[in-house]
């Protein structure tokens, strides 16, 4: 079994708490933290028990707010690294998401960070909070 598959089995979407915001994360950027939380909420709606790929269109269709180009810039920064927004002081490392043929997927690096930082209670999560917008 590959290292990526081992990690993806270790922390599943249902293991990650989304009842609070992701502010104060390793990204040190509000827009990145909001988009990440929205991505995880979307992932949980698609399949709580496995990590599945998604498209930009999937993200736009999931969000209940008017999605902006700045959210696409965050996804690009999660893939390629760099500034997640034109006015951001934070610079992200590459490799938080993968992008292949227009489909994004959570990287091993992202899943490990989510599991290490936002692990849900072993008793489960009582409810999910709503989608953040910016």
Describe, in plain words, how this protein is organized in 3D.
The chain has 134 residues and is mainly alpha-helical. The chain has a domain at 26-118: Arc Repressor Mutant, subunit A (Orthogonal Bundle). Helices cover 41% and strands 6% of the residues. The chain has helices spanning 3-10, 30-46, 56-62, 69-80, 108-118, and strands at 97-100, 103-106. A two-stranded antiparallel ribbon has the order 1-2. The N and C termini lie far apart (40 Å). The model is unreliable at 1-6 and 123-134 (pLDDT under 50).
Structure summary, number of beta strands? 2
C-alpha geometry: globular
Strand content: 5-15%
SS-derived structural category? mainly alpha
Helix share bin: 40-55%
**Order of helices and strands, N to C?**
HHHHEEH
Main sheet, how many strands, which sense, barrel? 2 strands, antiparallel
- Spatial order of the strands in the main sheet? 1-2
CATH topology of the domain at 26-118: Arc Repressor Mutant, subunit A
CATH class membership of the domain at 26-118? Mainly Alpha
Gross CATH architecture of the domain at 26-118: Orthogonal Bundle
TL;DR of this structure?
The chain is mostly helical.
Please describe the structure with a list of short key phrases separated by commas or semicolons.
134 residues, mainly alpha, Arc Repressor Mutant, subunit A, 5 helices, 41% helix, disordered C terminus
